[in-house]
Amino acid sequence: MLSTGYLNSEHPLVIATSGGPDSTALLNILYSSPSVDAEKLVIAHLNHDFRGQEAEDDAKFVENIGKQLGITCVIGKADPLTYQNEKKISSFEQAAREMRYSFLRDVAKEHDASAVILGHTLDDLAETIMGHILRGTGLQGLIGMELCGKWPFPYGESDLIVIRPMLEISKAETEYYCLESGIDFRRDTGNYSHRFTRNRLRHSLFPDLESNYNPKVKESLVRLSKVVSENLKFIDDALEGFWDTVTAAETSGSHVKFNIEQYLLAPLNIRRLLLRKAYEHIVGNTTKLQENHVDLVVNQLVTEGKYFKKYQIADWPNGIKVFCNLGFLEMSVSDGMNQTVAITPVMIDLSMLNNPSEHYYQESKYKFEILNYTGQPIDFSDHNRVNLDADKLPNKLLIRIMNDSDRFQPYGFPHEIRIVDYFSKRQVSKAAREIVPIIVDESGFVWAVGNRINQMGAIDRSTKRLLIISKVLE
Fold first, then answer.
1. Domain span at 311
2. In terms of DSSP bridges, do strands 72-77 and 41-47 run parallel, antiparallel, or are they unpaired?
3. What CATH number does residue 268 fall under?
4. Which of the four, 4, 82, 197, 324, has the lowest number of CB atoms within 10 Å?
5. DSSP class of residue 247?
């Protein structure tokens, strides 16, 4: 705490206090410290109204601590279930977290505090890192939590920080401290419910890891966090140079614009970090941005591509839309400015296809050619090339974006299915499938580029002519 400089601040310090051993130990240590002016401490406790009388007793317990110590105490009450439904949040834990930080923010502002002190321990840090690993994370997620951090929610609270002074202290140590010092504390029965992911990590996964793999697995994760944090500080310094190079002058607080040509010159890991930085620039943090969101954009921007039209390539959390737009990659909050621009379908007349022909659609080039087929071996390994029976297809084909109503019979399937169902079963996101070009004829679907063909165009023993369609990677 001394290293943060906030103990000498003229502003009050808010201490988030649940009544459990961690926050109770933290409160008593700060109260007893000669470096802390107890008159500047403010206790904040939120009753989540989830455990009935037990939660009411917790609130009363914390209130009594405040009275005994002569410290200002603010008790709040909230309903996470209602909030979760109203905000359409999938996780109860996330809803409770958002309400808790909103309450702490309000208490801090009411008392002119510039920092809120939290009782997170080494165990909490290890559990956070493990949760990130299980969901899939980049380097930022391996940090987990830091001593001093940006305000986590609501976003954009630049004048308020969180301080976590006990990240090197275990829960066992805080409980031992309370017992040895004769300090009462409460136990939250909700912390033992396997309904919540963190509790399953705490009571199932970590005990198994400690018993059968590494008894110091938590300490190992915390060391990993420190190493990653040190490396990221170096990377962040280097990232600033790339950021200055790729960002266009139109970049603002709610809108980031990259020059795609300059962006693609950066190493792959830097391109990924630039996307995360762009998201953080707009939202204020990267809490909800996962690696699959970044991958969706990275995988669509390749050095061989041309990006001179405007179309959406991804939907990111918190309403962030990602567009290719006339040679730029744009990321902004959906506000009506960045709506997907309709892309004109391209028609190919097979009856006029005497020689190979090339057509551009959505910045990619497609080659069409018809060849006589005499049973020669065909290479089916290239996902950007298909071989069809030319005589089974009508003369006119279209390249266009798929519609929800499109149906086809995938090669090898006994019946038709909706194309959206085909992609959903393959865990292709809505944003990704919305930009997959399909090639259709008058009666329906022929090929989803890079995916399966329709059964109707399949080659068999009666095939005399091949229609070869290739997506050309220039």
1. 247-333
2. parallel
3. 3.30.465.60
4. 82
5. B
What integer is the mean pLDDT of 78-89? 91
The answer to whether residue 155 sits within a structural domain is: yes
Whether 56 and 146 share a structural domain = yes
> CB atoms < 10 A from the CB of 360, how many?
14
pTM of the model: 0.66
Domain assignment present for 446: yes
Q: How many domains does the chain have?
A: 3
- Find the helix or strand (DSSP H, E) in which 321 lies: strand 320-325
Q: Is residue 137 within 8 Å of residue 193, measured between CB atoms?
A: no
Q: How far apart are CA 133 and CA 136, in angstroms?
A: 5
The total number of residues written for the chain in this structure: 474
Report whether pLDDT(474) > 70: no
Per-residue pLDDT of 402-435, as tens digits, reads 776 678 888 888 888 888 888 877 777 666 666 6
Predicted local confidence at residue 336, as pLDDT: 41
Q: Which of 403, 401, 405, 317 is nearest to 362 (CA)?
A: 401
Sort 85 into a burial class: Cβ within 10 Å, 0-12 / 13-18 / 19+: exposed
Does the residue 227 lie in any domain? Answer: no
Residues 328 and 392 in one domain: no
